[in-house]
Amino acid sequence: MNDYELSWVPSKLPLEKPFYKSIYQSLYDDILTGVLKPHDQLPSQHELSYFLDIHFTTVTHAYDLGLKNGLLYTEKGRGTFI
Question: Is residue 54 part of a domain?
């Protein structure tokens, strides 16, 4: 792991495989427990992938799952939000 401040980091580290499901589950859990609140901005896919030392498409897949399930939304040019 890197010493890098992010707006959110999965609460269960190290991640279990498949990583995208582990990231999604951590997002889901943190939303349910109030760690993440509506309209909180998530780190960019590149930032989170760099921090976790995984490929950015893995984070993209997790964020896409959150979008598909209505947990997340995006604003073009601004980022991904709860």
Answer: yes
